[in-house]
């Protein structure tokens, strides 16, 4: 095989390369770019759409999908932002966190980033303390984002399902075997009740990652 030359951002040049060899080399050269360009959205349009396609969650006409956020740290705030940006039919209406300052900072940030019709959280719909999640679940919400520290995830999921709410929960979904068993049981109950539960393992659904995996399985990358 001829000598291969890679010059910065220019195309890979080769003398006497087969098409398969070129694809392998080009794939290796571009894999970092492909992975780096993935948008790491926690609650993506695809997540909301998958719930809608399942028939478990939808908005029609002038209806809105009303969302409650439980856990207003950086990940929860980012998830709420992604969720509200996924569709004009999504609106954040309630928020809960253990700490008042975390909630207020999150609410302020979302207010700066989202149109007014995507964030309609009044002071009366802001809840703090260890029981904040229970108050969010009692609010008029269709879907809750569970983004508190993962130790609380199993209990929050169980409460959300019992309250009849659709759920997006951040990963990890639990931190110990007992928590995992609780999540499995709550997910089974959600299925029985026709509720959608989506975990934030978004990488396995993202187009760039799927394309890279396809090339690996086809032998374009690696031996």
Question: Helices, strands, pairings?
Answer:
Layout: E1 4-5, E2 13-14, H1 19-36, H2 45-53, E3 65-70, H3 74-86, E4 90-97, H4 100-113, E5 126-128, H5 132-138, E6 143-146, H6 153-162, E7 166-169, H7 177-193, E8 197-199, H8 207-217
Parallel strand pairs: 3-4, 3-6, 4-5, 6-7, 7-8
Antiparallel strand pairs: 1-2
Helix pairs in contact: 1-8, 3-4, 6-7
Describe this structure in words.
- The protein has helices at residues 19-36, 45-53, 74-86, 100-113, 132-138, 153-162, 177-193, 207-217; strands spanning 4-5, 13-14, 65-70, 90-97, 126-128, 143-146, 166-169, 197-199.
- With 223 residues, it is α/β, with parallel strands linked by helices.
- The chain folds into two domains: 4-38 and 206-217, no CATH class; 45-203, NAD(P)-binding Rossmann-like Domain (Rossmann fold).
